[in-house]
């Protein structure tokens, strides 16, 4: 196939795949009654989630959570990403921002939300809040408490050199 042009390669590949899909001559790689027990994985994820929801306001390291999951740090990171399609840090930040939203909806200050949600740097808190909620903590609070529409990002000013349409 390597000497064929791209179109012919694609046609040849589709012919092979069609042949494989329609053939009755095959052997299973595993026994037909093969079953994988996902219980351990589910239990592990439940333990991780419970730990995060219980301790999100504290300092949580990958080492801490890997220990809860009974895994090495690198194994845990791969495991968590394969199960959730996100890095553990992103998940932790989402949990923390979710709690900050609850604090803001209760009428408490942005500073209270920052402290109670477990972030240790207010600039990072603001950055993550905006990344996850698509608005600042103050705009979120105004939106939720006073019904003020969230502030949309400003459009770039039109240059005087730009021809009008």
Describe what you observe in this structure.
This protein is an all-alpha fold and 165 residues long. Among the domains are: 48 residues; 57 residues, Homeodomain-like (Arc Repressor Mutant, subunit A, Orthogonal Bundle). Helices cover 61% and strands 0% of the residues. The chain is built from eight helices and no strands. Helix 3 crosses helix 4.
How would the blueprint of this fold be written?
Elements: H1 6-22, H2 39-55, H3 62-68, H4 73-84, H5 88-105, H6 110-116, H7 122-133, H8 137-146
Helix pairs in contact: 3-4, 5-6, 5-8
Strand content: under 5%
The residue-averaged pLDDT reads 85
CATH architecture label name of one domain: Orthogonal Bundle
Head-to-tail CA distance between termini: 51 Å
* Largest β sheet strand count, sense and barrel closure: none
């Amino acid at each position: 196939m390597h000497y064929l042009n791209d179109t012919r390669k694609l046609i040849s590949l589709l012919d092979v795949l069609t042949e494989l899909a329609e053939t009755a001559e095959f052997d299973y790689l595993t026994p037909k009654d093969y079953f994988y027990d996902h219980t351990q994985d589910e239990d592990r994820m439940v333990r991780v989630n419970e730990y995060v929801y219980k301790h999100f306001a504290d300092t949580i390291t990958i080492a801490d959570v890997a220990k809860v999951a009974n895994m090495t740090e690198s194994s845990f990171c791969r495991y968590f990403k394969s199960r959730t399609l996100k890095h553990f840090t992103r998940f932790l930040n989402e949990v923390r921002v979710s709690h900050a939203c609850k604090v803001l909806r209760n009428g408490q200050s942005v500073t209270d939300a920052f402290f109670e949600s477990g972030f240790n740097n207010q600039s990072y808190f603001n950055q993550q809040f905006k990344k996850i909620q698509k608005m600042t903590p103050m705009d979120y609070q105004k939106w939720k408490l006073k019904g003020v529409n969230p502030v949309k990002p400003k459009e770039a000013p039109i240059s005087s050199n730009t021809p009008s349409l």
